[in-house]
Design a protein that fits this description.
This protein has 174 residues and is mostly loops. The protein has a domain of 77 residues: Ribosomal Protein L15, Chain: K, domain 2, CATH 3.100.10.10. Helix content is 13%, strand content 11%. The chain is built from four helices and six strands, in the order H-H-E-E-H-E-E-E-H-E. The chain has a three-stranded parallel beta sheet. The protein has a three-stranded parallel beta sheet with strand order 2-4-6. The chain is flat. The termini are far apart. The model has no long low-confidence stretch (mean pLDDT 87).
Length: 174
């Protein structure tokens, strides 16, 4: 028998009811609800990283490494299997606007990338900004064409010259 995710169940006794605090002294967690008497921790919440005023660990350790998040290139993704929708069935060439009209991608500024998941059973010309190798091979195997749109050139930053500083002349005192 194969185990399936929706059939998983916790073992008997593995899951406990949550403790209901503050419900009388007979419950062992009444009155102060397990927080002890007065003090900082008895009152409100304390930041998890708070170390009593000492410089916390996350500030004592140096920052290391590099993260590519700020420099990533985002794409709108379309799989070859998504091109089998009825709105695109009769088209011989499919571009970005046709994909937006068919509801396969959202419109906007992001470039479109075609991935090779799914089957392509007819010869079509697909126009996009980028193709995966698998997608390109499947399109050509079906007798179609993968046309790459040139990315928009980034605008060169405008050079602004600083205004010339005025010379101050010393005035003679009388």
């Amino acid at each position: 028998m194969v185990m399936k995710l929706h059939e998983l169940k916790a073992s008997p006794g593995a899951r406990h009811r949550r403790r209901r605090k503050g419900l009388g002294h007979g419950s062992t967690l009444g009155k102060t609800s397990g927080r002890g008497q007065k003090g900082q921790y008895a009152r409100s919440t304390v930041n998890r990283h708070f170390e009593g005023g000492q410089t916390p660990l996350y500030r004592r350790l140096p920052r290391r490494g590099f993260n590519n998040y700020n420099f990533r290139q985002e794409f709108r993704i379309v799989n070859l299997g998504d091109l089998a929708v009825p709105a695109l069935k009769d088209k011989s060439s499919i571009g970005v606007q046709e994909l937006v009209d068919a509801g396969q991608i959202r419109g906007g500024e992001l470039p479109v990338k075609v991935l090779g998941d799914g089957e392509l059973k007819r010869a079509i010309t697909i126009t996009a900004h980028k193709f995966s190798k698998a997608a390109e091979e499947k399109i050509k195997a079906a007798g179609g064409q993968a046309v790459v749109i040139a990315p928009k050139a980034a605008a060169a930053p405008a050079v602004v010259e600083a205004p010339a500083a005025k010379k101050k002349t010393a005035k003679a005192k009388k």
